[in-house]
Structures are given as C-alpha cells and as structure tokens.
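In this supplementary section we document a worked example of the pipeline. Step one takes a protein sequence of length 366 as its only input; no multiple sequence alignment statistics are reported here. Step two produces a three-dimensional model, which step three serialises into structure tokens for compact storage. The input and output of this example are shown verbatim.
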Amino acid sequence: MKLVYIVNRIDGPGGLERVLSIKASMLADDYNYDVHIVTLNQESTDLFYEFSNKIQYYNISATGNPISKIYKYITKLRKAVKTLKPDAIAVCDDGLKGLFLPILLSKPVPMVYERHVSRQAENQNDKKSFLSKFKASTTFKLMNFGAKYYNKFVVLTKGNLNEWQLNNIIVIPNPLSFYPSESSTLTNKTVLAVGKQCYQKGYDRLLKSWQIVHEKFPDWTLKIYGTISKKEKLDTLANTLNIQNSVKFYPPVKNIKDKYKEASIYVLSSRYEGFGMVLTEAMAYGVPCVAFNCPYGPSDIITDKKNGLMVKNGDINGLAEGVISLINNENLRKSMGESAKIDVKRYFPEKIVAQWNDLFNSLIQD
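The serialised model returned by step three reads:
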C-alpha cells in the first residue's frame, strides 16, 4: 500500500514528530507500506527523531502573503498527490487548512485526519472576550464542516470524542515511544516535566505549585525540558516566587530517556493536551505521575491513586499536595511506579500500529 502523510514539519522535537517517527517507520518496516511524507517549507533534512530509511520525503515550498501562500501550497500539493498516486492519505495538520484538504484536493483517495491536540488549542490565554469567543465559535464551526469530509477522523482520547459532532470519528491513542527493561530507582530528589514553554503547558501554574513544594522540601529539584521561550518569562516568575535555585530549565535533548530514568516523580501542569505522551514515557520508566485533569488525555492514561495522581485542572494547591504526598511516601512512589510500568503496556507500538493498519486496509477495501 502506498501511503502519503501530509504534515507541516517533521524536523522538530514535538510530540507529533515523535509519534509519526514511530508509526510511519513501523508501517514501512513491519507492514511493508510505501510511505511518503509531504512537508511544508521544511528545508532541513536533519530530523530530531529517527525515521525509517525506507520512507521518502517530498517538501513543498510556499511563501508570500497568506492568500498567495495557500494558493501555492494547494497547487503544489495537488501536483504532488497526482505524481505519488497514493492508495490512502493521512493528514497530520492541526491547523484549519488541514481540515479542508479533502475539499481542496477533491479527495482523490480515502483520506484520514489525525487530530493531535484538543480544540482548546484555539484558546491561547485566560482572557475570554466576546471577540475571542466569537472567533473560537466560528473556527469550531469551520472545523466541523471540513472534518466531516474525511473518511475517518481520528482522535487520541475518549474525551476528544466530546469535542466534535461527527459520525466518522474514532479513537486510536498514541503509541509508546519506548519501553526499557530498567526502571527509575525513584530515589533521586528530582521532579520532571517535559514540553515546550508555552501557554498550553501551564508552567506558570507549575511554578506556583512548586513554590509550595519547595517550602517543605527545599532539597528537591524541579527540572523542565523543552523549547525555551523568553516571552513566557518563566525565569522572572521563578525569581519572583523565590524558587530559582530549585528550578532548572533545559532545552530539548535527544537522550530524554535518561532524564525519565533519573526522575522520581513526573508532573504535568498542562491547560489542555492532545494526549499526554510524556505521561506514558515517564510511566514506561516506572515513574509515577501527578497531572491536572485537563482536556484531554491524562484521565485516559492515569488511574487515580493506582498508577499516579489526578488533580482538578487548575488546582495549584492540589498539584502541590499530590507531589508532596509522593515525596513524603517512598513506598507509595514505588507501588504507583510499578503499576504505571505495567499499565502502560497497552500503548505498545505493535498494538497501536496494528489498529492503523486495520483502518487503512478497511478504507482501501471499501
């Protein structure tokens, strides 16, 4: 089967890139798919994650004002699809244009859409003015309109089902990135968070929570790995909260596995998520997680008080109390960590990619 993925870029350190590297590579290597990935304005061939050497790439260059750019993109994309002659197309583009590709391309073959974020991604701050609400409402209507033209619309969690009014929607979660034989000892005085610095990840909330933790356990350290954004002013906030000596910010690293292994607790402070793959990665190392019950993902992955702790979204004190309870009780940390390592096996790549293979085959047979 010839499969074409349409994405924006795959050279970054984000979750979408990691998922695609696992999924597309397994389809190419284990299922003998002829996989092609079409990118937009990605001149770099240096990829952060490792992709199968069987995969072929096709980059589209489109610049100019928004109207000119989209016209060039669609024109060149049509040409690419016509040249490649795929059996199926999978679109991994969370922008509005991605949802209209079946219409813009006249849907030449079965098309599948992969939604990697919650619709809450349209909300980029806590201010909800009439104009912002109207804009979000209009955008959501356009999203639903375009989404119904796909053969299948795939979301990552059960919670995501509630965001869309569609008859073609199904759930296929993200595959696990790795599953090491070893686990963290859970004895290092380290709490870990992974993800780029942005409104979504809620690190401002995490730092306020960490201030409470730091007052009781000044010898513990919070380490945050992810693309650093000066506009988030997290350094300033850490200084204001007087926790700058116990919080460390690091850029993305390829050896993130080592960081999970060195951690004793993982904390997720996101305002919203598409899935929360960092939770499954931490759990693979037997690290218990404390997470806000944000839309959506954590509630699918974490069973509260069994393999981690769930906290009401935005409850700063509750997040701190969850971390403190695990710092205080090493036995609880270890028992939750052991459960986490077992429970996360349901996300093994061979289980998830098999679902994708079944989906693509069912669409081709139809």
